[in-house]
Amino acid sequence: MLKVTDLHVEVEGKEVLHDVNLHIGEGETHVLMGPNGSGKTTLLRAIMGFSSYKITEGKIIFKGRDVTGLSLHERARYGMGMMFQRPPTIAGLKLGKLLSALSGSAPENIGKFGSQMNMSNFMDRDVNSGFSGGEIKRSEVLQLLIQNPDFVMLDEPESGVDLENISLIGHSIAKLVEKDRHIIDRHKSGLIITHTGYILDYIDADTGHMLCDGEIKCHGNPREILKLIQEKGYQECIKCQKN
């Protein structure tokens, strides 16, 4: 699904990521952890194709195609989707209109998923305008459910969300990266940033990565990595990897 090779990324002339290698197979969900400022969001945005994140070295191969030079909207059309940690408010654009643009040949999904995400009463409101933290997250997940990407990236989906909303969001995210052959004709894949690890209660994560100082330092069982970080901190995780 995704192969990132020797990736170097600059933001405003400063190198934030270097020598990043990541391989996510079809049907796999990976979890990315790391301290604040380590480059996690930069990695997701570089993969998605944001123009302010300059790739100076390396390649991004998506579904067998080199997309390193493609624009954000071209990557989205090719099957990438992303949920932001802090999505913008879009004045003048109604949520229902946005979902209609995303729905393509399946407009009936707007009502179906809108009801599922408790967002049916938000269709005539400007995107994220006056939304609570939980409502913004539900709106983001709803947009991804409508878009139906092959590969989804989620930036701290549990951040700022209460327990009631995390349950709803968690179960819906599980559908975005689900592997049931009887429901879909392909396996979807995902890359999820988490600090708390709450999302692991809802998804079947295959591999965890620990990113520090702009480089992936550790790969392994996501729950084991999270437990080590919670007990001993990121530096101990780095020492463990070196040993």
Automatic annotation (TrEMBL):
The GO terms describing molecular function are: ATP binding; ATP hydrolysis activity
Gene3D superfamilies (alphabetical): P-loop containing nucleotide triphosphate hydrolases
Q: Which UniProt keywords apply?
A: ATP-binding, Nucleotide-binding
UniProt cross-references to PROSITE patterns, sorted A to Z:
ABC_TRANSPORTER_2 (PS50893)
Q: Which InterPro entries match?
A: AAA+_ATPase, ABC_transporter-like_ATP-bd, FeS-cluster_ATPase_SufC, P-loop_NTPase
Domain ABC transporter as annotated: residue spans: 2-238
What Pfam families does this protein map onto?
Answer: ABC_tran
Q: This protein's superkingdom?
A: Archaea
Q: What is this protein called?
A: ABC transporter ATP-binding protein
| Lineage of origin | Archaea, Methanobacteriati, Methanobacteriota, Stenosarchaea group, Methanomicrobia
